[in-house]
Automatic annotation (TrEMBL), chain A:
The keyword Transmembrane helix applies. This is ABC transporter permease. It is found in: Cell membrane. It comes from the Bacteria. GO terms for molecular function: branched-chain amino acid transmembrane transporter activity. GO terms for cellular component: plasma membrane. It is a multi-pass membrane protein. InterPro entries: ABC_transp_permease, LivM-like. It comes from Actibacterium mucosum KCTC 23349. Keywords: Cell membrane, Membrane, Transmembrane, Transmembrane helix. The chain crosses the membrane at residues 124-145, 157-178, 208-227, 247-273, 279-297.
UniProtKB/TrEMBL annotation, chain B:
Pfam families: ABC_tran. GO terms for cellular component: plasma membrane. Keywords: ATP-binding, Nucleotide-binding, Transport. This is ABC transporter ATP-binding protein. It comes from the Bacteria. CDD domains: ABC_Mj1267_LivG_branched.
Length: 323, 243
């Protein structure tokens, strides 16, 4: 019953979001775009860290690469915007293959640090590319922006629906994966890697595939984020704070290893930001303190605790044995 | 007699600690082999080596006619090696049924209907009434039974059981013995590490004793138990349980 109510609430939220251009002002739309992009980033980090146990603190590598590849494709390659998005995602995933090959030699904390170092290397490389403005970055030519819509408001609408599609792809994609046979394996890896391996799950292959897929979708989100900003610089594109720290915060407070956790976490994160944005540094310290408190009190996060106590599930992925 | 599993000169060290020393034996197809030895002797390590959770420092392991010394655990499982863990490793966030479903979906191929296979195993091991419960909510004894069930759900040719009888009542122990005998009668080979010697003796065709990583006795169970050096190593438990 409670599940049904929550599901109805989710359906209503999706409907409201689908119709947002009808009721939201320009500033609200901008905020919603950011919320939806963060939801996509959080779902990807959660799929990676929450299910395969690969704690990456280098997600900014994929956001930055996606953004830079998108700018390179549209500015230097003359590729149309809507072709540049999937291409940037695909190329980011392709780059994740050799990157993963290096990162997977490292275990645990070394893997985490390794991903960060790799992201730094990508940032330094991006700053060397003169054709894309080097260290000071580059703006997207007006012609490229105008190619999606003539008017300013038209562009806002198109961008909004790109963000909406991104979030839907991320949430629905994760849900479909988790409900599949492969999802069974990923959930098993989440709970015990050694046991999953012992019942025939090729954990290495699953982890690598998830690493590459999440890199691609994170790259797609990066392409969108910098298309929306119309400007990219190495520091903004490869920011560990914006694209990894906040995302980890969202997933940890919301509930790692659940599909609902990142949704709850994203809502909470932006609610807090709206309230406390003026607090400056105190706000960031508060976020950190809250994340640590969650880990100490109940490391399953808000949704994890709710799910454990009341058995609630908005997007169920479990399979029952019928009587 | 076909040999299913073959260990040749297998050694394993953790730093200076040698937990497997020149371990060599064959397991004929269909045999139930018991393994005993003091705590810390290297019994569970032997399972890690056979199951592929740990690579040996040297030596060879062959299964079903193929060298598997460097084969990852998941591939060995798909070839037909299944194991239970002495300290249970349930998939705590999944139901009991789903725990088995992972095994029947990814274990040794051939389960065209993983759901039916999982349900069938739950009937055999008596966990059906817990099927839709969270594995994280099981008692230790139920978790041990889940270990056995999940291993069986992979559809193994060789079943490795690591101390699953501890803590059971007399009646439960009797049921467990019957279950394992049934499994063996379907052609599955078994290696069973167990401190509850009377349960072990009711099942196995052969007994190996391990001490300090070495096989110190190997043969007919009654003959092995009667050896003075085994009595010495095993005094406490054998006197109490073999009675
Ligand atoms: N992964 C490991 N790393 C280091 N030492 C280990 C490891 N696994 C087991 N050991 C040590 O090896 C010895 C044998 O352990 P084990 O095989 O579990 O013994 P048994 O199952 O016979 O009680 C013990 O001293 C144990 O502490
Ligand atoms: Mg042991």
């Amino acid at each position: 019953m409670a599940n049904r109510i929550l599901q109805a609430l989710l359906a209503l939220t999706i409907l409201a979001l689908a119709l947002a251009p009808l009721w939201a002002g320009r500033a609200d739309l901008r905020l919603l775009m950011e919320v939806l992009a963060y939801l996509a980033l959080a779902q990807m980090w959660n799929l990676l860290a929450g299910y395969t146990g690969l704690i990456s603190v280098g997600q900014q590598a994929w956001v930055g690469l996606g953004g830079y590849l998108f700018f390179a494709l549209t500015i230097l390659g003359g590729v149309p915007v809507f072709a540049a998005f999937p291409l940037a995602a695909l190329l980011t995933a392709v780059l994740a293959v050799p990157t993963g090959w290096v990162a997977f030699r490292l275990q645990g904390a070394y893997f985490a640090i390794g991903t960060w170092v790799i992201a730094e290397v990508y940032r330094l490389v991006a700053a060397q590319v003169g054709a894309l403005g080097g260290g000071s970055g580059i703006s997207l030519p007006v012609a490229v922006a105008k190619s999606i819509a003539e008017t300013r408001m038209g562009r806002e609408y198109v961008m909004y629906y790109i963000a909406f599609a991104l979030a839907v792809i991320a949430v629905a994609g994760v849900w479909l994966i988790l409900r599949s046979r492969w999802g069974l394996a990923l959930t098993a890896i989440r709970d015990s890697e050694v046991a999953a391996e012992s019942v025939g799950v090729n954990t290495m292959r699953s982890k690598f595939l998830i690493y590459v897929i999440t890199a691609g979708l994170t790259g797609l989100t990066g392409a969108f984020l910098f298309f929306q900003k119309l400007r990219i610089t190495p520091d903004a594109a490869f920011s560990v704070n914006d694209w990894t720290a906040f995302v980890i915060f969202i997933v940890v407070i919301g509930g790692i290893g659940t599909i609902e956790g990142p949704i709850i976490g994203t809502i909470l994160f932006f609610a807090l930001r709206e309230v406390a944005a003026d607090w400056g540094t105190w706000y960031l310290m508060g976020l950190g303190a809250l994340a640590i408190a969650v880990m100490l009190i109940d490391k399953r996060g808000l949704w994890g605790a709710i799910h454990a106590r009341w058995g609630l599930s908005i997007l169920p992925v479990s399979r029952n044995l019928p009587d | 007699m076909t040999v299913l599993l073959e260990l040749k000169g297998v050694n394993k060290s953790f730093g200076a600690l040698r937990v497997a020393q020149d371990v060599t034996f064959d397991l004929p197809e269909g045999q139930a082999l018991g393994v005993i030895g003091p705590n810390g002797a290297g019994k569970s390590t032997l399972f890690n080596l056979i199951g592929g959770a740990l690579p040996p420092s040297s030596g060879q392991i062959a299964f079903d006619g193929h060298d598997v010394t460097r084969t990852p655990a998941s591939a060995r499982c798909r070839a037909g090696v299944a194991r239970s863990f002495q300290i249970p490793h349930p998939f705590v966030g999944m139901s009991v049924f789903e725990n088995l479903l992972v095994a029947s979906s990814f274990g040794e191929s051939g389960h065209t209907d993983p759901e039916a296979a999982a349900a069938h195993i739950l009937d055999i091991t008596g966990l059906r009434h817990r099927a839709n419960r969270h594995a994280g909510s099981l008692t230790l004894l139920e978790r041990k039974r889940l270990e056995l069930s999940r291993a069986l759900a992979t559809g193994p040719k060789l079943l490795l059981l690591d101390e699953i009888a501890g803590g059971l009542t007399e009646g439960e122990c009797h049921d467990l013995v019957a279950t394992i005998k049934d499994v063996q009668s379907t052609g599955v080979s078994i290696i069973w590490i167990e401190h509850i010697v009377h349960a072990l003796m009711a099942v196995v065709d052969r007994l190996i004793v391990i001490d300090f990583g070495r096989i110190v006795a190997d043969g007919d169970p009654a003959t092995v138990m009667a050896q003075p050096e085994v009595q010495e190593i095993y005094m406490g438990i054998s006197v109490e349980d073999a009675a």
